[in-house]
Predict the 3D structure of the following.
Amino acid sequence: MDRKEIAKGMLDGAIFYHGHRCPAMPLGLRAGLYALDLLGVERCRAHELHLVCESGPAHATMCFVDGAMYATGCTYGKGAAHRVNIGKNAIILVEMSSNRAVRVAVKPEFFEQAMQSEFVRLRSQGIPPQDIAPEIVNPLIDRVMSLDDGEMFNASDIFEMTIKRPVGTFDLKRCDGCGEAVFGNCVQEQNGRLICLECAGGVDKGLVK
């Protein structure tokens, strides 16, 4: 089965995971599948791969990242993805056992054309994606799902990249401040007491980085 057919088979699940229909998420789906194929690896089940997302926290096509994570199986929850806030629709996929990596980026001309769509115009006016008519969004999704990879993406040669993941811990502590359970790599000692980072006053839960 070729990548287009695989992508079509994954699309409904990816839309359910993502929460709404838009063209950027399927674009990330296609990019992730392309990266898997270029590396010659299977979808990540635990920690075999790592996804570097070159997106940012506040721009029009952040949905791209959800598609790439769904395609590759590299998710934030299992520590197999991280974001570098440089505002590009590009990913790097790394095979952890060999440090082999490939970068897939949306072609600038494709990206620029996509940003001129009626869908983007409506989104820029503050209209939620789920409220945009299917006759506007569906042709954009269909186009992303039907084009060849080379029409949408630039891909690097295989290169070497080392991912520095923190070592996971099974060491559970009890915070002497709030009394909640917290993993040992997120506590600090103050005056002989074990204090979580929140009780230590070093956490702003409302800050999106």
